[in-house]
Amino acid sequence: MDYSSFVRLHDILSPFLNRMESRSRSVEVISTVMIVAYGVRYLAGEQLRSLECDFGLSKSSAYVVKDIFIDAVLQCPDLDIAFPTTNEEFRTIAKGFESKATASIFQGCVGTIDGFFQPTKRPSIKESFGNQRAYSSGHYRRYGLNAQAVVDSNLKFLYLGVIGPSSMNDNRSYKKSGLDSIINNLPNGFFILGDAAYTLSNNLLIPFVGSNRHDPAKDAYNFYLSQLRIRVEMSFGRLVGKWGILQQKLCCSLKRNSDILDVSGRLHNFVLLYNDTEFEQPCNSSPSMPSGFEYRPTRVEDRENVDDFIENSVLGTSRNRDIIVDFIRNEKFTRSRYNLARNAGNVDGNDSNALFYTVI
After folding, report:
1. How far apart are CA 202 and CA 108, in angstroms?
2. By percentage, how much of the chain surpasses pLDDT 70?
3. What distance in Å separates the CA atoms of residue 209 and residue 206, rounded to the nearest whole number?
4. Is the pLDDT of residue 71 over 90?
5. What is residue 138's predicted lDDT score, i.e. its pLDDT?
6. Average model confidence (pLDDT) for the chain?
7. Cα 107 to Cα 360: distance, rounded to the nearest angstrom
8. How big is the CA angle at 323 (ends 322 and 328), to the nearest 5 degrees?
9. Mean pLDDT throughout 283-299?
10. How far apart are CA 112 and CA 154, in angstroms?
11. In degrees rounded to 5, what are phi and psi of residue 297?
12. 165 within 8 A of 145, measured Cβ to Cβ
């Protein structure tokens, strides 16, 4: 966060900081500027002991200052994460995705959705209502929380919410969050892109899996969908990269851990909007992409029993997806030459056609 952004953040948080500071009798005298500086450095991953030393705070006061900052961000309406509601907002977002997609194949995309796993300490029996195991992820082999996120083409969060324990899969979290109702009621012509963990619908498009992937048009559809779906993966990478506290397990209560993730998402959006420093990630996966940011698609076909997965999934139907596949088939689009060569093991990493589509 550059200095001008920090000053702006302080200015919009000041009313909430002053109000909270006056109610807190235990905190030592500390200015609102220092509270914001402390909060930003805490979320960036700096250790509490280091912050206590730098700011001259006792341990108890440091915890109070941290909580004041987090509560202020949560209460500030200027930092709310809001899903678009008007056709004008949807059209603006859709144009952003069109600019990222090859040949504007996905016209009408207004977001990409995915789940996010945040490691935490093991919750207490009381706060987990006696079900601590629900917060243990067999995949990550850690305790944690399951969050759902929707982002636009500029990596801004349109929705970010902690939905449940880590054992809850993305599709269940999606329905529990209420996002299914929001997405199913999108205006005609608009849709969200997700991975194969979600249920296909007219307004939520996912990749083809199983034998369907061998159809050239459907395979091309999967490739072009991945060009846009990577935006949500990049948002997660940016979120964790900037707010280093998320790179380690959170050790507060379940409620506070959820708050920290929420606040990090709000400040992620704030920095995108007001920071003077521009940073852009390429849409396509390439050998030169920094580690951790390269797109890794969900590969249902890598599961031990693909047939069982497909049979037990609610596959759904989607007219929007059918229209896009028909367009790809009629225009004879395929994956990029670079991607085809890479999949075949015949690429040296310096192919000049890496970002171009192929028409046959």
Report:
1. 12
2. 79
3. 9
4. yes
5. 73
6. 81
7. 22
8. 95
9. 35
10. 11
11. -65, 150
12. yes
Identify residue 197 by its one-letter amino acid code: A
- The length of the chain is 360
Amino acid, res. 192: I
C-alpha angle with apex 116: 113 to 119, nearest 5 degrees? Answer: 175
Residue 354 tokens, joined: 């890496």
Task: Please report the pLDDT score of residue 283 as a whole number.
Answer: 38
Q: Which two tokens stand for residue 339?
A: 């991607």
Largest pairwise CA distance in the chain = 72
23, 140, 142, 237 from 145: Cα distances, Å: 31, 11, 10, 17
**Inter-axis angle of helices 254-274 and 59-75, to 10 degrees?**
60
**The two three-digit tokens of residue 162, written as one number:** 């902690």
Three-state SS string over the chain comes to: CCHHHHHHHHHHHHHHHHHHHHHCCCCCCCCHHHHHHHHHHHHCCCCHHHHHHHHCCCHHHHHHHHHHHHHHHHHCHHHCCCCCCCHHHHHHHHHHHHHHCHHHCCCCEEEEEEEEEEEECCCCCCCCCCCHHHHEECCCCEEEEEEEEEECCCCCEEEEEEEEECCCCHHHHHHHHCHHHHHHCCCCCCEEECCCCCCCECCEECCCCHHHHHCHHHHHHHHHHHHHHHHHHHHHHHHHHHCHHHHCCECCCHHHHHHHHHHHHHHHHHHHHHCCCCCCCCCCCCCCCCCCCCCCCCCHHHCCCHHHHHHHCCCCCCHHHHHHHHHHHHHCEECCHHHHHHHCCCCCCCCCCCCCCEEC
Name which of 35, 322, 314, 85 is nearest 187 in CA terms.
85
pLDDT tens, position by position, 86-124: 999 999 999 999 988 877 788 899 999 999 999 999 988
How many CB atoms lie under 10 A from the CB of residue 310?
17
CB 281 within 8 A of CB 295: no
Q: How far apart are CA 187 and CA 203, in angstroms?
A: 9
Q: CA 27 from chain center: how many Å? A: 35
What's the one-letter identity of residue 65?
V
Distance CA 277, CA 264 (A): 18
